[in-house]
Amino acid sequence: MGRTLMRCAACGAEVDASQGLIFTCPRASLDDGVDHLLTPVPLEGSDWPESDEQNPFLRYRTLLFPYRLARELGLSDQSYCDLVSELDDAIAQVDGAGFRETPILQVDELGPDVWVKDETRHVGGSHKARHLMGVMIASLAVERASGRHQAPPRLAIASCGNAALAAAVIARAAGRPIDVFIPEDARDSVVRRLTDLEASLHICRRSPGVQGDPCMAAFREAVAAGSVPFSVQGPENGLVVEGGSTLAWEVVDQLRRKGLAPSELFVQVGGGALASGVCGGLQVAHRRGRIEELPVLHTVQTLGAYPLKRAFERLRDLSVQGSLQSAMSYGRTRRSGFMWPWETPPTSVAHGILDDETYDWAIPVEMMIATGGEALAVSEEALREAHQRGRSATGLDVCATGTAGLAGLLSKPERSEAGGARVLLFTGAER
Ligand SMILES: Cc1ncc(COP(=O)(O)O)c(C=O)c1O
Ligand SMILES: [Zn+2]
Asked: How much is the CA Rg of the chain, to the nearest whole Å?
């Protein structure tokens, strides 16, 4: 029992997904200032999946919510594996390769004990597909278990970057129609690829006097009309966060094979789902004894917009006065006191971290405070230097968002922990 429980991290509402898959907290529409985030309740246990399987959604399946859901709904272990393998084969047809453990490299030129996890050649050219794969597996498992053969619901996403590309690849592989809501100034290369992938593109123009992002407004309308929220933001779909944990589990296992453990981690943050998924994965690995200590987490944003740093500083001050736990529950139930949109439209070479709000802010804030990490904000010059150094030291065709974590590391030459690996995530390919 409880294997398919989802719980809101802010208000505590619980739902059992085996009774019907939902993506947002049932109280999310209340507009009550609470930071509703419906995520799977992890199963306690001490086993760690050990196998040579290369696909993380197969290797780590016993840690993953979509697997627990599939089993609870009556699918066998083999049926889950078949479902994932079929989807993965279709992804390989659409995008050249499916999900595989991505490489990790030690890069001495970037500093002692610096390790780079290379996501640039992953599905869709970034780590984003990890987040969405879990959602698609869960949806397919529900359909397969019920034997329903109605037309599947449409998918919807507001993005004009890596998340949209990942979403369109997975949608195409699963044969699902997808609506992608993009701004007028979306890049041609992205628009071309989305068109090739047969995504339905909707250009959303700003109307004079109307506040807020018109793409998000159109996305929310589509979801209200029945589309599956397929964007990489936890408050819109709490299931996306967990997929990012697969990245952390791979890092832990890859370092372990070398007799190492992560001691510090620098994660670039836009909407915050990546950092949140990675934190969740590290916590699972820690609770199950796969790592002895949690690494120190540092997040990296641009000086152009650092809403997460703002929230971190307020919460850290609050946690000094009481406990971290009470500070976090205070923050999660009074979101606007900690997280609000950046006041001026920012620009940066690292456009993937320009979100004017960090939607998934609470999990990384809590982990930074707990591990003694910092919310770093770096200059454009530092981002450009990291981009150039990261590319030349690794030979990878990585984008400036992908190397932003390195800008954070270069700004902090003194180590937080002696020994262990200082880990960077090179998250996206140049386009
Ligand atoms: C290459 C790359 N890295 C990192 C990020 C940041 O991820 P998140 O928005 O989940 O914080 C993005 C987001 O667009 C991205 O495209
Ligand atoms: Zn809630």
From this structure: 20
Q: Which domains does the chain have, with CATH numbers?
A: 5-97+128-240 (3.40.50.1100), 104-126+244-426 (3.40.50.1100)
Half-sphere exposure of 19 (CA within 13 A, CB side): 7
Instruction: Indicate the top mutation candidate among 233, 358, 401, 426 to test ligand 1's pocket, ranked by most ligand atoms within 8 A of CB.
Output: 401
Name the token pair of 375. 């919310």
- Which tokens go with 73? 């709904």
Answer yes or no: pTM beyond 0.85.
yes
Closest CA to 360 of 236, 219, 250: 236
The tens digit of pLDDT for each residue in 339-379 reads 999 988 888 999 999 998 999 999 999 999 999 999 999 99
Ligand 1: list residues with CB < 6 Å.
126, 161-163, 232, 268-275, 352-353, 399, 401-402, 427-428
Query: Residue 323 in contact with residue 366, Cβ under 8 Å?
Result: no
Q: Which atom of ligand 1 is nearest to the CA of 358?
A: 11
Residue type, 216: M
